[in-house]
């Protein structure tokens, strides 16, 4: 099969012919229909993730059709499925209590296992997968596996966002746009933060109540002024110290910070603990979403409760993924990119 392979960090992915994946007994092999290009992939591409090495195949936001099924698989050949990026084992205490996104035995394609920047991908623990709704495009569905589900879990299960609250979203990439659209659906008032004015303007057209340009404004001061005292909830969607501290410092007393962005490198950073202490803030980490929540989220999207199509900006080829990753070294354009052509 054709795959985009990491050979040297910060260099274009190598388009190679590699062996087709073996089918796991407890899972399936998917012919990949679409795979998102995510900032988490970028962290691996630049050498910032310990499980991405020479020979790795990135890609954890994907959907596709079953072409091979293992003896213990739940799904069968021909099923069109969406996959969460965290594949919980299903048997450990975390999985049995509904927290499969914290499973210590989880497999994450693209990070320690071959991912979906390829024509085919092996998916063990296929009980995590769900059927692709007929009304949903494959390109849009690919982004559900990470960005949308992560944002939904962060807003609901971690932050418990309530109607009327102010929610600050730091970073308007895939997760940031998802958080904006979903928070508005929940009845919240949303402030978006970025350094690219074009992305802020785009977010305003999607319903953001206010926008703050971190390149020209003091973010915490601006948000405290807009909200008349600080946001109740703040989501950090980049994983760097600057946005983490801005997120903490923009909160009102008893506010909730939710850390969504995957920290780069060794993950160590200095955080304003005085702000956390003095304002008695809650600081939540979050990663992914339990697989059992997928059906209700998909039903909500199918009903038209929220329109997520604005987050998809462009479809690219497999060889075009390198340019998307390289662009993440600087300011990026609005919307997200999805690989839909694996022949080029």
From TrEMBL:
Q: Provide the Enoyl reductase (ER) domain boundaries.
A: 8-339
- What stretches pass through the bilayer? none
Q: Which residues form a coiled coil?
A: none
Q: Which SUPFAM superfamilies match?
A: GroES-like (SSF50129), NAD(P)-binding Rossmann-fold domains (SSF51735)
Question: Which cofactor(s) does the record list?
Answer: Zn(2+)
Among the GO molecular function terms of this UniProt record, one is:
zinc ion binding
Mind listing the UniProt keywords for this protein, alphabetically?
Metal-binding, Oxidoreductase, Zinc
Q: State if Magnesium is listed as a keyword.
A: no
The protein's matches in InterPro entries, at most eight in alphabetical order, are given as: ADH-like_C, ADH-like_N, ADH_Zn_CS, ER, GroES-like_sf, NAD(P)-bd_dom_sf, Zn_alcohol_dh
Q: Which family does it belong to?
A: Belongs to the zinc-containing alcohol dehydrogenase family.
What is this protein's record name?
A: Alcohol dehydrogenase
